[in-house]
Amino acid sequence: MGARRRAARPTTPRADQGRTTAGTEEGRALPPEDFDALVAQRLAARERLLAARAEVLEPQVTQRISAVRSWPVGRRCPISRLCEAWVAHRHGLAMVRRSGTWLAGSVSPALVAETGRAIELYEAYAEERPPDWPASGPAALCSLGRLGRADRFAGDVARLLGLAKRMRAAALANDPARLDRCRARAERRTQPPRGRFVFRNSAPRIETAEGRRGRVRDALLVAGANPGDWPNAELALAHHPALRDTAQPRLIEPEHCEELDGLAARAIRYRAELAAGRWRISADEPPTSNPKEA
């Protein structure tokens, strides 16, 4: 009985059910001129609706974006607010009014965690930030969006993390406390192992390029020098008094001329980028349109 009742129910919509959206089916019998006029009328109505919506949303969006640009240091900013401000600075206010934060891309828990890490690291070493950059991490993301080098929000989050690491390197490259910790580790590595039977105490006759790099770095630290002051191991061996006249093992591979201190090398590259204007920003105001369309 129940199967018959279900089979008797109509499966097609009734003719008397009205449409909920406007269509052009009713204009099939109209002449081409009248049909064009109907389409133009509906397009004009759509434009008026969008203009009224933008008039209501623009003050709210502008206020929220201004709040992100002046976000206090140390306070967590919601990821939705960050994405909205980033889209406004990257693609323009009109794009935020039209599609919200869609152009920012998908937001995953991993992206939320990476955003918090990048902001925290940036604010911790804000004294080494590029000229004219804000001290707040959320405002720095707005500045990155203004540069227009990433197509999605996740790209500028990664760029902010890379910038924060450069700033940390610039702050710690010549830090005495860091050098003391490095020197203590180098002294422990140069001492013979304890509690083991050592077969050979003589110096090695051959070594790799990476082995020479680590050995020279430790020797400079033990001698009280800063490895970051030397571009590579070859120059340190040729000119430092503590290493100049000592016998060196033979290299079994070509010398790569790599930096002795990776943190100091990153700081040097960061200062070179600042001098070249890579992180220069012209303004920190959101554009009114897409920069690619201007």
Explained architecture:
With 294 residues, this protein is mainly alpha-helical. Among the domains are: 53-173, no CATH class; 176-192 and 204-260, no CATH class. The protein is 55% helix and 1% strand. It contains eleven helices and two strands; from the N terminus they run ααααααααβααβα. The protein has helices spanning 2-8, 32-69, 79-91, 93-99, 109-124, 137-147, 153-172, 176-190, 209-222, 233-239, 262-276, and strands at residues 206-207, 250-251. α2 (32-69) packs across α3 (79-91), α3 packs across α4 and α3 runs parallel beside α6 (137-147). Residues 1-30 are annotated as: Disordered.
List the helices and strands and how they pair.
Layout: H1 2-8, H2 32-69, H3 79-91, H4 93-99, H5 109-124, H6 137-147, H7 153-172, H8 176-190, E1 206-207, H9 209-222, H10 233-239, E2 250-251, H11 262-276
Q: What is the rounded distance between the termini? A: 68 Å
**Number of beta strands:** 2
Order of helices and strands: HHHHHHHHEHHEH
Q: How can the largest sheet be summarized?
A: 2 strands, parallel
- Gyration radius from CA atoms, angstroms: 32 Å
Instruction: Name the beta content range.
Output: under 5%
Which structural class do the helices and strands define? mainly alpha
Helix content: 55-70%
Region (Disordered): 1-30
Task: Based on the model shown, name its key terms.
11 helices; mainly alpha; 2 strands; 1% strand; 294 residues; elongated; two-stranded parallel ribbon
